[in-house]
Amino acid sequence: MSLRPRQSPGLPSPANQRRKGLKKSINSRPNRNRLPCYLKPGATVEINPEDPDFRGSWFLGKVVSIQSSDKIQVEYNTLLDEETGTKLLKEDIDMSRLRPPAPLMSEREKKKVIVVGDKVDAFYGDGWWEGDVTEVLADGKFSVYFRCSQELISFTKNQLRFHREWVDDAWEPPLAEKESEEDKADGEEDDEDVLSQVDLEATRAIAKQMFSSGTVVEVSSDDEGFQGCWFAAKVIKRIGEDKYLVEYRDLREEDGIEPLKEETDFIHIRPPPPREEDVDFAVGDKVDAFYNDGWWVGVVNDGFKDGTVGVFFRLTREKMRFGRQGLRLHKDWVNGTWQPPLKGEEIKRTNVSKVSCDRSVRPKKTIEKQEFSIGATVEVSSEEEGFEDSWFLARVIEYRGDGKCLLEYDNIKAEDGKEPLREEVDVSLIRPQPLESVMVSPFERHDKVDALYNDGWWVGVIVKVLAKANYLVTFEKTQETLRFHHSQLRPHQEWIDGKWITSSKSQKV
């Protein structure tokens, strides 16, 4: 190839910014079928600390990693490490001391009168403590006795929940069934405002418990055109009782540089939903689709042979196509737990078509006499030394026989520096432009990626995750390591037998 001088990676990248919407590759993870789903890394759990002073208490946290067959490393949402006083406490906990977040009271339980002798959990000191109601006070509060500490403390109703035990992967006593018509009618009008207030108080209490400074969250907005969309952010600090100052991960201030900071209330904030691996989407599934820096609610209405999914957005009446990594099954954050959509909200699932993705990665195979239409946008590789594993954007001008075609590059100029460079290349060095996809979450160490540098995409491997969505990427051919922002990366794919195959992890781990 006789291109104008190009440099292999070696200097900081020029300001070539890829459009928003980069996906994260699918990671192969160890098979942990022996573990309950609520103990997968990243899952929200309730933790019973091993410290004797915390007997009978449960604190919210998340699973960090699996340490052994019976030990799980967890990180508390509110408890701090005594040594630092600033970092969240991490501990290796026996599996028997972990459980899913306990459900808050059902509608029937909210209407139930709390009486002396009821066994309850009381929210106190950032955790739920097991106790017994000993007295109903005149001011609407309840005296609760804690056997472990032999203390007697008063609480309001919204600070209490009926006590349950997690036994054999189920709650005891079991959750109340649906209310009968008589239950619904009995006192419905009288209790409506009270129940609404209880719900708000419960949501406020959960927010105080979960959303401390530094917590990663998602934030929604009531602004016109943004209803139902959730944006990734982190909590900077709590402001008063009901508001939080958050910093968005992908939204910027007007200067386009600094992350946007904004106040929001406890109703519009929630933790990120737990990640689910190996999901096959079906027509009718209610999903969240990542687009323009946020997660938008839609419904799958089509599946395509290339593995992409058609999504319909009811609010805007738009239809768009997404890669499976840009989608997640929709869930609602209700009373401190993740709930699937209510049945009947989805499109009726008739003639269901599963949408899957081929995750096998085979050796690259040369495709001879690959046909592209005139004017088609393609990517071109090079056999020149120093330019292996790089791809440049171009379009097909004409075919010239003997497996050759004339291309015009998008970003490479001819020697005069004015006109786009045109060049005759072998068809075997051409492939379609990879499908546009969206990023589900940050890249991880060992992810195989393409990095945008000097007008081309260069194949590399992430060797270190840095702050503010930056990464160190190593390039095998040149043995160089450079720093890139996530907007300059895309997951690596191979064009094999007319299909895009995602290669999510470097084989040299």
From TrEMBL:
Biased composition (Acidic residues): 179-193
A Pfam family per the record: Agenet
Span of domain Agenet: 37-106, 112-168, 209-277, 279-335, 370-438, 441-497
Listed CDD domains: Tudor_Agenet_AtDUF_rpt1_3 (cd20405), Tudor_Agenet_AtDUF_rpt2_4 (cd20406)
Extent of the signal sequence: none
InterPro entries (alphabetical): Agenet-like_dom (IPR008395), Agenet_dom_plant (IPR014002)
Region (Disordered): 1-35, 173-193
PANTHER family: AGENET DOMAIN-CONTAINING PROTEIN-RELATED
Name the record gives this protein: Protein AGENET DOMAIN (AGD)-CONTAINING P1
